[in-house]
TrEMBL record:
This is BTB domain-containing protein. It comes from the Eukaryota. SMART domains: WD40 (SM00320).
């Protein structure tokens, strides 16, 4: 909760930021704002793929925001940026490619020593149908979710017609858990919600709410899943998103045939994963860039032809 004066100051900073940095340099961008005490931290991404961090600390009051650091690792427009207490997380439009950096702090403020260091690089692949609507995107936003001072997560829904979600750490992409519909129905939308703790002083509990094709809503305890994943006796997690086998099972829910006859070939076609690259004319419902990604993955796993 902030005072009216602080919100007015914040509005003035945002106006200065827009006029000075954004209008002339990056007409399309994603912004993350951090307010703590009497300093402000802003991270934004540009159409060219750059990620910039701007700060205004108490010692610079009276001056405009100062450019703190620039990261030029993405090759596509940046669509999401989050600056948390420990990490800077950015996502670009190329298959939701995520890059993260550790952010060192001294007395709560971002520090230049030893400087931000790369943490992880991974993708939150989400294949969309050709006739996807805006409401679908709004109800299936993958995140990141979480407060700036808490562990943030991504929720990955690989294909539109699926009964499972992959919950992953936003900092490194590792899998926290796999959510599977209890009744096998398709998950049509989801969101992450926080509820205040029942005990005085207890931290809010986080839940994932999933909506299903039959009109039901299922509720999942995310806080407990995070606590279990942090236990030292848990095996080291190396898997993040779906494995090759899990991806094939997910694609079994997709129509990969362009046949319009009354008895189409079973989908996916057995030849699609039996040692050949997916042909463009063999796919009817997936977007061309999704097909390109599947071909790339197949080639990387050695499934492609010559």
């Amino acid at each position: 909760k902030f005072s009216v004066a602080l919100w007015q100051y914040y509005a003035a900073i945002c106006s200065t930021l827009t006029q000075t940095y954004l209008q002339s340099k990056c007409p399309r961008f994603a912004v993350s704002l951090g307010l703590s005490g009497n300093w402000i931290e802003i991270a934004y991404g540009t159409r060219s793929g750059s990620v910039r961090v701007i700060v205004q600390h108490p010692e610079t009051v009276g001056h405009g925001p100062q450019l703190f650091q620039t990261f030029t690792v993405h090759q596509s427009p940046v669509t999401k940026v989050t600056l948390s207490e420990k990490f800077l997380i950015s996502v670009c439009s190329e298959y939701n490619h995520v890059r993260t950096w550790q952010v060192p702090r001294f007395r709560g403020m971002i520090s230049t020593q030893p400087g931000s260091t790369p943490e992880a690089s991974f993708k939150i692949v989400s294949l969309e149908a050709v006739d996807s609507t805006f409401s679908y995107s709004a109800g299936n936003d993958f995140g990141p979710f979480g407060e700036q001072d808490d562990e943030q997560i991504f929720v990955q829904k690989v294909v539109p017609d699926t009964d499972q979600l992959y919950v992953r750490l936003a900092s490194n992409g590792e899998r926290i858990c796999l959510i599977r519909s209890v009744d096998g129905t398709t998950i049509t939308s989801f969101c992450v919600h926080e509820c205040e703790g029942s005990r005085m002083g207890s931290r809010p509990r986080r839940f994932i709410l999933s909506g299903h094709c039959n009109g039901a809503i299922q509720m999942w305890d995310l806080t407990t899943a995070l606590e279990i994943s942090k236990k030292k006796d848990q095996p080291k997690r190396s898997v993040g998103g779906p494995t090759a086998d899990e991806l094939i099972r997910e694609l079994d829910q997709c129509d990969l045939s362009n046949s319009h006859c009354s008895t189409p070939c079973m989908s996916p076609c057995p030849s699609a994963f039996s040692g050949s690259i997916i042909e463009p004319n063999a796919v009817g419902r997936l977007k061309p860039f999704n097909v390109a990604f599947l071909n790339q993955s197949a080639a990387a796993m050695g499934l492609g032809g010559p």
